[in-house]
Amino acid sequence: MRYRLRRRGIDHGAVAPGARTTSWEACEPVVLRSVIPIHRARPSILRALRMIARLRRGADLASRLPPLPRGFRILGTTVNTGDPLEIHKLHLSARGRELYIKVNWLSTYPRDGSLRLRFSFGAEVLDDWAEDPVASRASDRLFERVFPASRLVTHSPAILRHIRSRIQAQPRFVQRIVYSNAPGGGAFFHHDYVPRQAGVVYAQLAGATGWIALPKRTLARQIQNHTRRWRDTRALLDYLDAPNPDRLHRLINHSPTFTRRLAKDGWFSVLRPGDSILLPSRGWDDVAWHSIFTVGRSPNLALSFGIRRKENFAP
Question: Would you kindly state where each structural domain of the chain is located, as residue ranges?
Fold first, then answer.
């Protein structure tokens, strides 16, 4: 089956999923089929979709939350007027810690209704979430109250078994995010490397997403094979991490020819409800880069979790 990929006004053409066998050890994406029993949480998933639809229309998150756990309290809502992507940030307190839920668009493209809700605490730029286990667990508890279907992911025997076999440890899920990509939207190429984090698990709960995902070093080789501009591999790897790197950015994100090249080489896959993808990361150059397209005519719903080894995160 072929899928038409359109994102932010650009038609990338029709591509077919590859049948490539991938390896976590090689920092390649690992797709897990039907590992989330979504039939157990359909009412919860439908409520989440309705809530996100209201947020798109301008509703305040505080008015859409279910009853909070004991000891949790809403402090107020702020808006960062200097950030064109932020819709608003809801601040809460629990166990003496201040938590937040940040609601933001994924792009400034006028017809892209893709958004995300990030559950965290502390200063975003300082990665406070990585150093405070008490606040982290409070944030996890809040996430599970707002999106109870998330337990289908964090307690999935199949997902846990796959992750344990790859990191050789019990996983701890951190940095919990809800994504709802809208038709014509999605995410440009990026990576999720964070020091002391083994990777990311992304779980599809409703709708479908198309993924072009591959190791950074492989992406660099594909760029070199596609254009003669980049002969110095080290310089190319560094430049990929530069903010919005002009012509290179346009090539990997806006070129239909390049998109189809990666798909033809087997790096394209589609996630449907119940599917998940593991994105390994070991360092700035050894990490799975990924580009996401919305598949279908309706906004979808997915969850994302950072993966840390439990022994590296104090109780």
Answer: 3-312
Residue range 221-262, pLDDT digits in tens: 999 999 988 899 999 999 999 876 788 999 999 999 999 999
From the CB of residue 93, how many other CB atoms can be counted at a distance below 10 Å? 15
Distances (CA, A) of 112 to 108, 222, 278: 7, 28, 26
- The pair of structure tokens assigned to 255 is 């070129």
| Per-residue pLDDT tens over the stretch 130-179 | 667 888 899 999 999 999 999 999 999 999 999 999 999 999 999 899 99
* Both structure tokens of 212: 């072009």
CA–CA gap between residue 209 and residue 118 (Å, rounded): 19
Domain 3-312 CATH assignment equals 1.20.1730.10:
no
- Cα separation, 308 vs 78, in Å, equals 30
Amino acid at 177: I
In sequence order, what are the beta bridge partners of 63? none
Q: What is the DSSP string of 224-247?
A: HHH-SS---HHHHHHHHTSSS-HH
**Do residues 117 and 177 lie in contact, with contact meaning Cβ atoms separated by under 8 Å?**
yes
Whether the predicted model's global pTM rises above the 0.90 cut? yes
Beta bridge mates, 88:
103
